[in-house]
Each structure stands twice: as structure tokens, then as C-alpha cells.
Write a structure and sequence with these properties.
By secondary structure, this protein is of the alpha/beta class. It has 9 helices and 15 strands. The chain has a single domain, classed as UDP-N-acetylmuramoyl-L-alanine:D-glutamate ligase (3-Layer(aba) Sandwich), CATH 3.40.1190. The strands form 3 sheets. The chain has a 9-stranded mixed β-sheet, sandwiched between helices. Strands 3-2-7-8 form a 4-stranded mixed β-sheet.
Length: about 300
């Protein structure tokens, strides 16, 4: 059994739907409000599980109703929660505003996520995990230790650098796959305005990353590998309702295929299809499709993958 371990955040998302996102100093009326399970770590765990992966979640929640609700949601999808710590801080929350076009603004309150420590990371994962997923919504000191131990034991790591933060110079050399969106790419690479996505991603490869995966929304995605592979995957054309967790869905679905040994280009197409379905639905984990749904969607749509050969 190939185990995927997601080490990251668990949040209760408080979602307000509005006609248009507020401008600075502006007050807008909410059309509806919902509490839905979220957090990048948990979202990616659910996406990987629904895509067919065997997934363990490691993180922290409070000893409150939100925390129990988040754990129940994970278990309902078959995600193992044995290693999720219960701490004294309140469970993390995310305050999300979604407009009529499906775009969103997100404000995080870390809560229990900030209490996760290296002592909460069980040693067994470095001997049993086939793949680790990381994000930046837990303390960096924990993420850094995980990267170092994973490299020592030969465990590949996909890290979603969200939110994007500049780190010490050598951390990229510990990363198997660096996953980020276009805005995070610009922030992390420090590239000047006008730099192409490919050139910015290439800079991160030069800085040590094993591969860079850039999600580009309606423009698709780019995979750039240290081995010279370069894949552009077109986005599927769908009517967007809510982009919340679309990136998490892409990463989790990709991880499930990647760890199963599926060719990168096909794993990317599968992930693109899963994310396309997700943006047609509301919410975070509530929007993530099952493997069967994704396969049906792919079978109903012509192949949209193209390979870019470079000299």
C-alpha cells in the first residue's frame, strides 16, 4: 500500500457569498454564509483520498466543536486522523468571501495550526510514507524538519508554497516537487514584472527544486522538471462557480496519480480535470470530486494535453 501523508492545516472555512468583492473601505452585504471543512492540508488530503489514494493526515485542531467536525469530515472520506493533535488553541479558521464570478478573498486565522510542533510528526512516516504533501499554513520550522528528514530517508515531498514566503537559500534543494500558483511563483522567484512563467519556474529549478508545478487557473498549468521534461496542460472549459480549493484539488489529485506511478503528463491531465469539476461547485472539500467523477469527465472531453519540446 502506497501511503500519502499530508502534513498541514485544518481549518473551518466561514464562507460569505457576495455580488462583488469589497474594495478597501467598502462594506458589502453577504448573500449567504456557510461553515465548510477546509485548510490546505486537509483539502489536499481529501482530494488525494477521493482520487484513490491511501491518505494519513497530520496536523492540529482545537478541543472544540470545529475540530471534531473537521476530523469527522476527514474520516468520512477514509483519511486516517490518528496523528492529528488536539491542542488547547482554537481550531484554525479561514474567512472566505466569494463573488458572483467565483473569485475569492481569504483571510486565515491559524489557531491550532500554529501549535503543531516537530514532536507531533511521527517517526514512522519517514519509513512508511511513499509521498509527503506539505504547505505553508503550519510553522515553517516544522516544514523544514520534515523536508530534511524526508530527504534523509528518500521520501519524495510535494510542497505547496502557499502562502508564498521567502525562506533560507538552501530549502529548495530539499523539495521534490514545488507546487504554486502564478502569484506565488512571482513572489517566490523574485522575478521582475514581465518575466515569463517558464523563465520564473526555471529560476527555481536552478535554485535547487527537483520540479516546479505552476497552476495557472483558466490558462492551465506548467510542469518543469530538472530532468528537462516540460509539460503544458490546458485547463478544461467549465462555468466557474467558486475557485476555493481548486489548487488544493489539483495538487491532491496529482499526488494520488504521481505516487501510483502514473506518467507525469497523464497525472497532470487527471489533476486538471479534477480541478475543473471543483470550480463548478461551492465550498472547499465539498467541491472535490471522486475518482469516478473525474474519469467520467475526462472520458467526455477530448484530450487537452500537449507536450512542449525544448532544445
Amino acid at each position: 500500500m502506497r501511503k500519502i501523508v499530508s502534513i498541514g492545516s485544518l481549518n473551518m472555512d466561514v464562507v460569505h457569498r457576495v455580488s462583488s468583492l469589497p474594495q478597501p473601505g467598502e462594506t458589502v452585504q453577504s448573500l449567504s454564509r456557510d461553515n465548510v471543512a477546509g485548510g490546505k492540508g486537509a483539502n489536499q488530503a481529501v482530494a488525494a483520498a477521493r482520487a484513490g489514494g491511501s491518505v494519513w493526515m497530520i496536523g492540529a485542531v482545537g478541543r472544540d466543536a470545529y475540530g471534531e467536525s473537521l476530523l469527522e469530515a476527514l474520516r468520512a472520506d477514509g483519511v486516517r486522523t490518528d496523528c492529528v493533535a488536539r491542542v488547547g488553541a482554537d481550531t484554525g479558521t479561514a474567512f472566505i468571501t466569494v463573488d458572483a464570478e467565483g473569485e475569492n478573498h481569504i483571510v486565515l486565522s491559524a489557531g491550532a495550526n500554529s501549535e503543531l510542533s516537530a514532536d507531533d510528526i511521527p517517526a514512522w512516516i519517514f519509513g512508511e510514507a511513499s509521498l509527503i504533501m506539505l504547505q505553508n499554513e503550519i510553522p515553517w520550522v516544522v516544514g523544514r524538519i520534515v523536508l530534511e528528514r524526508a530527504r534523509m530517508h528518500g521520501v519524495p515531498v510535494i510542497i505547496n508554497a502557499a502562502p508564498a514566503m521567502r525562506r533560507e537559500a538552501d530549502w529548495l534543494a530539499l523539495v521534490t516537487v514545488l507546487a504554486l500558483n502564478e502569484r506565488e511563483l512571482a513572489s517566490l522567484s523574485g522575478s521582475p514584472v514581465g518575466t515569463s512563467v517558464r523563465d520564473a519556474a526555471s529560476g527555481l529549478i536552478k535554485d535547487g527544486a527537483g520540479a516546479v508545478l505552476v497552476t495557472l487557473g483558466s490558462k492551465g498549468s506548467l510542469w518543469l522538471g530538472r530532468d528537462g521534461d516540460e509539460f503544458w496542460t490546458d485547463a478544461f472549459a467549465v462555468d466557474v462557480v467558486d475557485t476555493t480549493a481548486a489548487g488544493d484539488t489539483f495538487i491532491g489529485a496529482f499526488a494520488a496519480e504521481y505516487v501510483a506511478g502514473v506518467a507525469v503528463e497523464q497525472a497532470l491531465r487527471f489533476a486538471s480535470a479534477a480541478a475543473a469539476i471543483a470550480v463548478t461547485r461551492r465550498g472547499a472539500q465539498s467541491s472535490i470530486p471522486t475518482r469516478e467523477e473525474t474519469i467520467r469527465f475526462m472520458n467526455s472531453t477530448r484530450n487537452q494535453l500537449r507536450r512542449v519540446h525544448t532544445s
